[in-house]
Design brief:
Blueprint (H helix, E strand, L loop, with lengths): L2 E7 L8 E7 L8 H14 L22 E2 L2 E2 L20 E5 L8 E3 L2 E2 L2 H8 L21 H11 L6 H5 L6 H12 L8 H14 L10 H5 L7 H19 L1
Parallel strand pairs: 1-5
Antiparallel strand pairs: 1-2, 3-4, 3-5, 6-7
Helix pairs in contact: 2-6, 3-5, 5-6, 5-8, 6-8
Amino acid sequence: MKLTLRVWRQQNADADGTMSTYEVDGVSPDMSFLEMLDTLNEDLILKGEDPVAFDHDCREGICGACSLVINGDAHGPERTTTCQLHMRSFRDGDTIDIEPWRAAAFPVIKDLVVDRSAFDRIIQAGGYVTAPTGSAPEAHATPVPKPDADFAFEHAECIGCGACVAACPNGAAMLFTSAKVNHLNVLPQGAPERETRVLNMVAQMDEEGFGGCTLTGECATACPKGIPLMSITGMNKEWLRATRKAARK
């Protein structure tokens, strides 16, 4: 396959960015999207040019590092992570636009790499449990109803990739934050911080400069792990519950 790539190039956070055009030949349909970018970078290095900076780590669809907007879609045309997207999703001769996550709370570091530490600070605000657990407890020591366990596991699948933010027209982080709140709040281990968790994490999310949620649903559509849109509703209920409880004190 021969492809035309239009790639966002930006030297650093303070520099102006622009789309640069490259031709890549010899692309196999079995290559992953990141392997195709490796091919581009090999060509650039041989020419003495600066390779394109992009994030990646496990390349197994688990870590969420491979954050790219491809032809206007977070992670590209398939509902998966960029590292698990294969070039058979494209056709010979295609022109592909490649950009970083587009959100004010995710400033560009260089080229396609963005700073997603805002997510880390949201988790630090309440995405943990303080109950001392000691060594690993016996599996049935703390009974959890199966619907609650399934609900928690569904939300724990969030890998923090940020596709929800990139896809949202408002740049909101509600799906990410709700996944982190819900998977802990429904479990008995998360009960001691149930109210403070949601209040602190939502407050930190707002402080980071993410946009407001208008429930357009693009976040859930783009999520490679299928976090449901109803997760946001669940977090809103938790926030109202915690706010009312705090007001009664």
